[in-house]
Every structure is written in C-alpha cells, then in structure tokens.
Write a structure and sequence with these properties.
Blueprint: E1 2-6, H1 7-23, E2 33-39, E3 44-51, E4 54-61, E5 63-66, E6 68-73, H2 74-79, E7 86-90, E8 97-102, E9 105-112, H3 116-120, E10 131-134, H4 135-145, E11 158-164, E12 167-173, E13 178-184, E14 194-197, H5 198-206, E15 213-218, E16 222-227, E17 230-235, H6 245-253, E18 259-264, H7 265-276, E19 286-292, E20 295-301, E21 306-318, E22 324-327, H8 328-338, E23 342-347, E24 351-356, E25 361-366
Antiparallel strand pairs: 1-5, 1-7, 2-3, 2-6, 3-4, 4-17, 6-9, 7-8, 8-9, 10-15, 11-12, 11-14, 12-13, 13-25, 15-16, 16-17, 18-21, 18-23, 19-20, 19-22, 20-21, 23-24, 24-25
Helix pairs in contact: 1-5, 4-5, 7-8
Length: 370
C-alpha cells in the first residue's frame, strides 16, 4: 500500500468514526480495530470498522500509488498530530508496520493482516436504500428533539423517524417529556418507522456534509444510513415499539388549556435564567409562573433568597388563578431546543405543551407536583 491523502480529510474521517462508535450503545468501546483499504481503481481509501452489529465504512478520495489492505488501531491513527496538508501512508507486503509521513513528522504504526474479526461482524443482510432526505433538514430536526433523558429505567434516549406520505416526523420521549419535529418533503415516502438511539443517529448525520442528501434503509435486523462516502449499519432495536406522538398530543389538546399565550424564546429564557441565578448551583429549581395582561411573571423562593422576573406575552387566555409549576431544568433545555423566534405555550393541569411554528417543533413536559 502506498497512498497520499489530504490530512484534513483523514483527520475528519477518524474523528467521525470515533464519535459514531462512542455513541453506538451496542459497540465495545475498547475495540478500535479497523481496516484501511486502498483502491487504485477508483482512487480511494476506505476506512472500515465493525463491532457487535455496528458497521461503519467511510470512503475518502486519495492518490493511490499502490493498492493494499491492512488492519489498524483507529485510536492510534486518530491520535497522530498530522499538520502538513497531505499525509503519506506506506505498507510493504509481510511487514507489521504502516509507515506515515506528514511534513516533518514520520513514523510507523503496528498493523496486522487478520481480517477475520471484521469480516465476521459485517451485517449479513444490508438493507436496500429506499429513502432520500436533505441532510440539512434531518440535522435540524434531530437538534430540535435531542433533549437529555434523565430516565433511569432507559437512560439512552431513542428517536423515532416516521413518514406520513410526504411528511417527515421525528419524535423522542422518556417517562417525563416528549419532543416532536415535523417537516414536509417533496416526495411521498413509504417505509416502516425507524427507532434508533438519538445521540448515535445525530453523530452519523453530523458526519455527512451539509447541503447533501442522506439515504436510509431498513430490514428486519438492520438500519442503514448512507451519505457522501459514509455508510453505517446499526442493529434494529428489539425492545422499541413505534409511538404515535401526534395522536397523544391531539388527545391532550382536545380539552381547552388552563393557560395559553405567545412569547419570545429569548425573553422567556432570559427571565428564567435570571430568577434561577438566586440559587448559585446547577440544582433543578422549582419555579412558579403566573400570566395576566400582557406579561408573565416567573418566581423562585428558597432558603437562600427569592426573585421574580417578568417577560412580555400576547394572545393570552387564562382559566383560573393557579400558578404554573415549572422545572427550571426542563424549561431551560426546552427553550434551547426551540432555538429562537416566537413560541406558543399551553398549560393543562399536568402537561405543558410548547410549540414553535418557525422550527416545526412541539415539546411536552409535566408540571411539577404540589
């Protein structure tokens, strides 16, 4: 093997694969074996890894003087401080060393020719690609539903991707909260709902360049994600059942809310951060919110002190005078998911629904108990 490859591309590929395996809950985090395959026919180097059902292949353009194939420790390769614009990799037949050179830095890394472990862990049935989505849209959607689950029974937040003709719906939920993002596509899509670890899915989608397309496929055992040289397979989650969150939200909204108003994300966030600062810690603070006229007031009382702050609201409808009981942690995180612009807030006896028409996002959280 003798290849010359762009250092930036090599480093980016190494980081992407490392992140994908780090977020892949099925993978053995201590197993860093991967193949480097240089093809003179199409002028490429492919980095390939497989572990406990998680399969990742990333193809990079390269100047290939001599084709070849080796097994290498991905972590060792990604740790190298390669600073020159291009990096040269060389391997001679029967040698256990892979030589590298980048500017003034040169050396060798230990490799092997034992491909059996990786070969045996490739998916036996790789799904056909059946869905194409704009990468920007999918990345934006995941960002809007990726909250930090604190559910001890199921700490890994799962994401459901489903389609209703030309409508794409992304949802997440734990035992306390739920989030939904929806957007319309140019074409109608028919595919079974995909359930996948949310942080893992985001790591894969983030590794695919913006302004391109992401391709998806699924069969009984494997979910496939592909785009711009990256091809990833993840086992189907056996303990996950599809959830129709739209119907659940419709059921809540069938009854009129106790409180309803429009407000600015930025102004609501500033008020909540302000009153929360009375307690100088990362404690999840209980807050009371009351709405009247053209403003909402959020209050905190504690043994340290008390504070209140108001922020403007509009289109207010109030039935009753009970304050809304908020979690500062839930509110701060959900306002962060909303991004910016105007949101609608609707409150019932238990659930609170926040909706951003601008970002196509609906979030559900509970009121705190008395």
């Amino acid at each position: 093997m003798h290849v010359i490859i762009e250092t930036k591309a090599l480093a980016g590929a190494s980081r992407a694969i490392k992140q994908i395996f780090a977020k892949g809950p099925v993978a053995d985090k201590d197993n860093n074996n991967g193949c480097l395959v240089a093809s003179k026919k199409d002028g490429s180097v492919t980095m390939e890894s497989a572990n406990q059902g998680l399969y990742v292949k990333l193809r990079l353009p390269a100047e290939v003087e001599e084709a070849g194939k080796v097994v290498i420790d991905r972590a060792a390769l990604s740790n190298l401080r390669l600073t020159d614009a291009k990096t040269t990799l060389k391997h001679k037949d029967a040698s256990t060393d892979l030589g590298f050179r980048s500017g003034g830095l040169k050396g060798t890394l230990k490799i092997s020719q034992d491909f059996d472990e990786i070969n045996s862990q490739r998916p036996s049935k790789i799904p056909e690609i059946t869905v194409k989505i704009e990468s920007n849209m999918l990345r934006e959607g995941i960002k809007r539903v990726l909250f930090s689950s604190n559910d001890e029974d199921d700490p890994l937040l799962k994401l459901q991707l489903s389609f209703q003709k030309n409508k794409m719906i992304l949802t997440t939920n734990d035992h306390y909260r739920a989030a939904m993002f929806s957007a319309f596509l140019e074409d109608e899509i028919e595919i079974a709902p995909i359930m996948i670890p949310a942080a893992f899915f985001f790591s894969v989608v983030s590794a695919i360049p913006a302004d391109t397309h992401i391709h998806l496929g699924i069969n009984d055992s494997v979910i496939r994600i592909k785009g711009e040289g990256l091809d990833v397979c993840h086992p189907v989650l056996q303990d996950a059942s599809p959830v129709n969150m739209e119907k659940g939200i419709e059921a809540i909204e069938a009854e009129p809310p106790n409180v309803e108003f429009l407000t600015s994300v930025a102004e609501a966030r500033e008020a909540i951060l302000g009153v929360g600062s009375i307690i100088p810690s990362n404690t999840n603070i209980r807050m009371n919110l009351t709405v009247g006229g053209k403003k909402a007031v959020v209050k905190v009382e504690s043994s340290i002190g008390k504070a209140d702050c108001w922020f403007p609201v509009s289109d207010v409808k109030v039935n009753g005078d009970e304050p809304v009981k908020l979690s500062s942690h839930y509110m701060q995180e959900f306002l962060g998911l909303m991004g910016d612009g105007e949101i609608q807030v609707r409150v019932w006896d238990k659930p609170i629904i926040m909706r951003s028409q601008k970002h196509g996002t609906t979030l559900v959280m509970p009121q705190l108990n008395q």
